[in-house]
């Protein structure tokens, strides 16, 4: 399982019950899937799991997989990504990002 | 890109500078990769990205991909997973979990 670099983004919408705003965010996120360096992509909602260690308060979760850090940096500057931020940043109240690189493991 | 259910786990080690404890956690996490319902797996460390929205304080990140919620439930009860928790829970100070299901999107 050769996964390398994962960019996880959790979005909290300003108006989570507004269907139009949710739809706008989902449509915007899906434009990101076509960026050339993206190897795998996932858009999901909180699962109905419920333990003390689980955060299920977010609205949407985006996972993007890249071959390496450089490809993720290229993604950040891609016009499609910049347009997504311009178009959709007003929709969210909070974003939480975790960037995780498998190549940094001492014995990967 | 047919990703379905993602189980993201972030671990904060009690003693993050203890190489033996880090090695024990990594070895334990890797045993999980062989559980039958796991479709893809990633173990990483915080990338050297640094923006206000990024949390890079964790020690290790585990991403496990499943076909659906039921397969993730099966994983939770698998003896390999239970042994991992028994063997390694003393190593971490905090665990943060996000379970994300693509099948819950209204227009997936």
What labels describe this entry?
4-stranded antiparallel beta sheet; alpha+beta; 4 strands; Alpha-Beta Plaits; homodimer; 108 residues; 31% strand
Provide a quick synopsis of the model.
Two copies of one chain form a homodimer. Chain A has 108 residues and is α+β, with helices and mostly antiparallel strands.
Strands, helices and their partners?
2 copies of one chain form a homodimer.
Chain A: E1 5-13, H1 19-31, E2 40-46, E3 60-66, H2 69-77, H3 79-88, E4 92-101
Antiparallel strand pairs in A: 1-3, 1-4, 2-3
Helix pairs in contact in A: 1-3
Overview of this protein structure:
- 2 copies of one chain form a homodimer.
- Chain A has one domain (5-16, 23-106): 2-Layer Sandwich (Alpha-Beta Plaits), CATH 3.30.70.100.
- The model of chain A has no long low-confidence stretch (mean pLDDT 95).
- Chain A has 3 helices and 4 strands, in the order βαββααβ.
- In chain A, helix 1 runs antiparallel to helix 3 (79-88).
- The longest helix of chain A is centred in the N-terminal third of the chain and has 13 residues, at 19-31.
- The termini of chain A are close together.
- The first copy, chain A, has helices spanning 19-31, 69-77, 79-88; strands at 5-13, 40-46, 60-66, 92-101.
- In chain A, strands 2-3-1-4 form a 4-stranded antiparallel sheet.
- With 108 residues, chain A is an alpha+beta fold.
- Strand 2 (40-46) of chain A pairs antiparallel with strand 4 of chain B.
Rg of chain A to the nearest angstrom? 15 Å
Q: Oligomer, anyone?
A: homodimer
CATH fold assignment of chain A: Alpha-Beta Plaits
Count of individual beta strands of chain A: 4
- Give the helices and strands of chain A as they follow along the chain: EHEEHHE
Q: Residue-averaged pLDDT of chain A, rounded?
A: 95
